[in-house]
Amino acid sequence: MALKGINAYKKGNLKQDVSQADPHKLTLMLMQGALDKLAYAKGCIERKDYAGKSEHISRATAILMNLRETLDLESGAEVAENLYALYDYMVQRLIDANVQNSLKIVDEVITLFLPIKAAWSQIPESAKQDAYEMQRQKRQATI
């Protein structure tokens, strides 16, 4: 019973964090969520909880697909294209991990994903503000 209360509290805090987050923070939260799901999937594989493994890999895959689809391939040029290809590769590898119940493949995806998250968290505030301003100007130009 106490666990349900803790989970409800966590969900309430998450909703509040999401409602107050800027796009950069939301992306970091998604990235952390994917890494958390992959860690849970590893635990499920170790315990031979294949239903749990599938659920967690599926959720991590959905996050990666969302991150991939939100890339601005027009403005981001080569970096965005490379990230798109890398996210696509990670999605394919997670499909393999799910089918093969492979800790090694899940670890490979985590190893590929950690530097992306680390780099994202290192973006300076001034660069974030410049990007937000550029987005506002794009929207204004289309109105």
Fold blueprint:
Blueprint: H1 2-20, H2 23-47, H3 50-69, H4 73-100, H5 103-121, H6 125-142
Helix pairs in contact: 2-3, 2-5, 3-4, 4-5
Write out key terms for the chains shown:
143 residues; mainly alpha; 6 helices; 0% strand
What does this structure look like?
With 143 residues, this protein is mainly alpha-helical. 90% of the residues lie in helices and 0% in strands. Helix 2 runs antiparallel to helix 5, helix 3 runs antiparallel to helix 4 and helix 4 packs antiparallel against helix 5.
Major sheet, described briefly? none
Order of helical and strand elements: HHHHHH
CA(first)-CA(last) distance: 52 Å
- Mean of the pLDDT scores? 86
Identify low-pLDDT runs: none
The number of strands is 0
Report the structural category: mainly alpha
Q: Judging from the principal axes of the Cα atoms, what is the shape?
A: elongated
Number of helices: 6
Give me the Rg, rounded: 17 Å
**What percent of the residues sit in helical stretches (DSSP H or I)?**
over 70%
**Percent range for β-strand residues:** under 5%
Summed up, what is this model?
The protein has about 140 residues and is mainly alpha-helical. Helices cover about 90% and strands about 0% of the residues.
